[in-house]
Amino acid sequence: MTPTPPRPAPVPSEPSDPATSASGPSAAPAASIDEVLALFTDWADDPYDEELSQLAHALQTAALALEADAPDSLVVAALLHDVGHLLTLAAGTPAPPTPGAVSRPVIEEDDHETVGARYLTGLFPPAVTGPIALHVRAKRYLCATEPGYEAALSSGSAASLARQGGRLDEAEVATFARNPGAADAVALRRWDDRGKVEGLTVPALDTYRDRLARVTTGSPPPP
After folding, report:
1. Which residues of 189-221 are buried (b: 16+ CB within 10 A; e: fewer)?
2. Average pLDDT of the segment spanning 45-62
3. What pTM was estimated for this model as a whole?
4. Who's near 222: CB < 8 A, 6+ residues apart?
């Protein structure tokens, strides 16, 4: 009797919102929109990994989402996609830099996308936290699938790529492509890559407050 060959191991699937399932370090969930925005005002001038501040990068990324006529949830994801970096900054400061600044437990910087998405999960739906949780994986996906993408990365993004795992392999590419959140994560990644222009004038942080509130409560956008 011919023995039955073993079945190949199934390729694991990614959750559509890794913020709800990934393991690793985390911060206490955000309690309010004011708390989230305070992170940006408290750390507004801290340098991003380019010649740009944290706040300037966030605002430019959100402005690109607005320009693309993205839905409110994706505009909010673009604005808040690097909030994990701000949580790391807050955690590494012995005392808050300004009265009322948010202080957080120590967080590993290389996991900023998961930490940031988890932090926002208590306030925002998966349409916001999913793209945030996947935006680093989207970079790795584009490096593996799009000729010229990796070579065009900024110096900071190129330097972080190795720490983040490098290009996805063939199985990982297929898994990512099947994720229902992949398209939004790739869109966010492209705005993230472009939102690094020194001195660019874009809408201010407070102009997003109503949009944040709508997405939090699930209210429809104004006509």
Report:
1. bbbbbebbeeeeebeebeebeebbebbbeeeee
2. 86
3. 0.81
4. none
